[in-house]
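Chapter summary example.
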Amino acid sequence: MSAPWPLDEQLCFALYAANMAIQRTYKPLLDQLGLTYPQYLALHVLWEEDGRTIGAIAQRLALESSTVTPLVKRLEAAGLVARERDPQDERQVRVRLTPGGQDLRDRCGCLGEELIARAGRPVDDLRALQAEVQALRRALEARDAGAA
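The structure predicted for these 148 residues follows.
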């Protein structure tokens, strides 16, 4: 077995460090809205399609349902979403935006614009990077699914 590569040569560390830098960029903006980054992501899923189940939110965010449930409960306590049992399947909990959650979408705007501005890189470069990272994720997920 070979020795580990230095951290700066490892893709996993580069992605981890970039993720942390992105979250630090978003933090002051989200603090003004009273949201954490995971809460923002959960709301974003509902802004894409309101009324998703806990399981669908978890799947979209690549998280476990047991992680999403307390997150949604905190958003409900903040008055941004409401949980309700699916009338067709009582085992499913649907999450719907409240008027406050819908209004927050407009107040949030696109946080990605701030990230683009701070990155100082051409938008096309960042789109290409995003496409490469998504392709890497799909390849790893496909390999994991094949191994299962």
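To summarize the output: The helical segments are 11-33, 37-48, 54-61, 65-77, 99-108, 111-119, 123-147.
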